[in-house]
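The instructor's notes for this session suggest beginning with a concrete chain rather than abstract definitions. Hand out the sequence below and ask the class to guess, before any prediction is shown, which regions might be ordered.
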Amino acid sequence: MTTSLSVGTSALSVDTAPQQCPICHHAIDPRQVAGVFRSGTVGIGRTSNVKFAFQCPRGACLHLFIARYEGRYEPRGGKWNYQLRSLLPFTPVPPSHPADVNTLSPQFVEIFRQAGVAEGFGLSEIAGVGYRKSLEFLVKDYCIDVEPANKEKIKAKQLGQVISDHIPDDNIKGCARRATWLGNDETHYVRRWTDKDITDLKALISLTESWINTHLLTSKYLRDMPDA
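After discussion, reveal the predicted structure:
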């Protein structure tokens, strides 16, 4: 369903107004403050960009933010179609991690959070590298927790070697290995897995984290409640 937004004395038809504040993340009906038109390419398939300033109406927020719309001229209909592309600034919702994972690898939690901030600002080329780094801390901290006597060896090894040598659980090993493949794609010149992206990387890191947490909880209860 389209809606109209004002740019000076003109009204532009856009696909949608912002439905959620990018800062407080509540559902809103934002107040439009201003609109600025910026022309783009010309000719067949020509495009243009429009930016609108909005204010969150919630009394607890009231922040201003910018919505960027990209327009494409459709010759058949003789009109411009504008689609919402981004909202800035964007404050990511802090990811939730199991308590045992927070204790096991606080550095993983912090690096993962920072990667999310970068992704929220549209810095996908940087975010992927951050997610890859967070994975290394999670895996190595877990392996050190399981094999404290091999701490220095684990710290010195490449991540792939750590996964092969120090993770016996097939679920953790399989997810961590595939997360490493996609994480390496984020740091290398040539991508190996061209049909996968940062969303798949995050999913595999989350699966790795989930399996690690399951192992930690299982070990905890078996230790606290030994067989009679």
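Then share the key points. The mean pLDDT is 91. The two ends are 65 Å apart (CA to CA).
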